[in-house]
């Protein structure tokens, strides 16, 4: 029977993506309308820090709720604290009590504790972890006084097994003190900077270690980036993750491709228009190959109509609809396309797990990419863990 995780009133089947959304992305970032239905998005992440800004602080005070106002009804919503904005700062300039009040008012189902993430080279990791634990205690205590159907997700930090174990012990004590139970749901912090710098091996090792320490917990990873890296994070032990890369990469004219690196579809990257056309054709060919081998399809991202890229002309017309010749006129199409690819890949992962073809699916996806060696290492680790009695 497939594993499920409880999330508010929902029973979720992992792996699952929480699509990151910043207040105002519709329409100021180039999105023409909310993309959730067309892209079959299953979960949403919003950011409490957005509501500390003057433009939106009054909004959250006056009855704004994401399910209604972001047109994301009857689906799970996670609200992040916004701690990632302070990754490069020595201090966190927002108060945990303020963040908790915003999270409660948002009517999201789960909120993230205000932690203080760090870069790999940070010299004040211990101080940041101590601040995270202090905020956790304060928010757990305050949340206990609320009768709202709301749960706080603590955040675990550490770039070594020893650091993770020490942080987890303290989180477990806090959880038992204020909630009467141990950790059943946790976010993994300070992993995204490792992944962004190309250290996928270390990032996935942290995820795998947390899974060993918490074999039955819901494990969430923040800002996992590309679809390829997302698949590795899941294989390492993550249940859910979030990403804003679907829209951020679209702003930089990148379009995602299942089983491949993102392709930059920018006219100025090519010396001649004919070279640009050739790049479009190569991208379209990848879509056709995916359609032939996996029945992959796309959509008209304005109407939601299905498009099967089963011919050269259809695939190239679609690819042209992802490019800009003037400014960012097709950002909406690229963003929706990217989010569709993220959701498609996780649906494929679930299907491959059920069909007992996960190994071959992942081998095909990471073959000839920079993640191939990390995947092989994860396979060996899983084999060792199974033989030694670990999960």
Give an account of the 3D structure.
There is one protein chain. The protein is of the alpha/beta class and 391 residues long. It has two domains: 238 residues, Alpha-Beta Barrel (TIM Barrel); 93 residues, no CATH class. It is 46% helix and 12% strand. The protein has 15 helices and 15 strands. The strands form four sheets. A nine-stranded parallel β-sheet has the order 7-6-5-4-3-11-10-9-8. A two-stranded antiparallel sheet has the order 1-2. It has a two-stranded antiparallel sheet with strand order 12-13. Helix 5 packs parallel to helix 6, helix 8 packs parallel to helix 9 and helix 8 packs parallel to helix 15. The relative contact order is 0.11. The mean pLDDT is 94.
Using only CA atoms, what is the Rg?
21 Å
CATH fold group of the largest domain: TIM Barrel
- Average of the residue pLDDT scores: 94
Arrangement of strands in the largest sheet: 7-6-5-4-3-11-10-9-8
Number of domains: 2
Question: What percentage of the residues does DSSP assign to strands (E)?
Answer: 5-15%
């Amino acid at each position: 029977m497939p594993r499920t995780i409880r999330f508010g009133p929902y029973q979720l089947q992992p792996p699952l993506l929480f699509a990151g959304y910043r207040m105002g992305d519709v329409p100021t970032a180039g999105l023409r309308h909310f993309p959730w239905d067309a892209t079959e998005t299953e979960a949403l992440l919003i950011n409490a820090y957005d509501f500390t800004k003057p433009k939106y602080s009054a909004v959250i005070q006056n009855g704004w709720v994401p399910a209604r106002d972001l047109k994301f009804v009857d689906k799970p919503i996670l609200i992040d604290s916004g701690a990632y904005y302070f990754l490069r700062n020595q201090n966190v300039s927002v108060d945990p009590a303020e963040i908790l009040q915003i999270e409660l008012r948002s009517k999201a189902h789960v909120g993230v504790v205000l932690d203080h993430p760090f870069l790999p080279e940070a010299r004040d990791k211990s101080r940041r972890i101590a601040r995270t634990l202090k905020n956790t205690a304060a928010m757990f205590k305050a949340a206990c006084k609320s009768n709202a159907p709301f749960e706080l997700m603590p955040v675990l930090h550490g770039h070594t097994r020893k650091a993770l174990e020490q942080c987890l012990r303290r989180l477990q004590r806090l959880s038992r003190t204020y909630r009467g139970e141990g950790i059943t749901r946790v976010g993994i912090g300070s992993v995204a900077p490792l992944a962004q710098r190309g250290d996928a091996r270390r990032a996935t090792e942290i995820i795998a270690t947390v899974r060993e320490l918490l074999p039955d917990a819901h494990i969430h990873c923040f800002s996992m980036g590309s679809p390829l890296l997302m698949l590795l994070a899941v294989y390492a032990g993550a249940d859910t993750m979030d990403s804003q890369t679907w829209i951020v990469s679209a702003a930089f004219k990148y379009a995602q491709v299942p089983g491949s690196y993102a392709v930059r579809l920018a006219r100025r990257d090519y010396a001649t228009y004919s070279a640009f056309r050739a790049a479009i054709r190569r991208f379209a060919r990848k879509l056709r190959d995916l359609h032939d081998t996996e029945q992959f399809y796309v959509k008209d991202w304005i109407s939601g109509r299905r498009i099967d890229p089963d011919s050269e002309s259809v695939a190239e017309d679609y690819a042209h609809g992802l490019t800009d010749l003037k400014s960012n006129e097709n950002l909406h199409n690229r963003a929706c396309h990217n989010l569709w690819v993220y959701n498609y890949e996780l649906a494929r992962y679930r299907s491959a797990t059920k069909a007992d073809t996960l190994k071959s699916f992942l081998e095909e996806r990471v073959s000839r990419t920079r993640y191939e060696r990390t995947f092989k290492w994860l396979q060996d680790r899983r084999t060792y863990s199974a033989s030694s009695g670990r999960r």
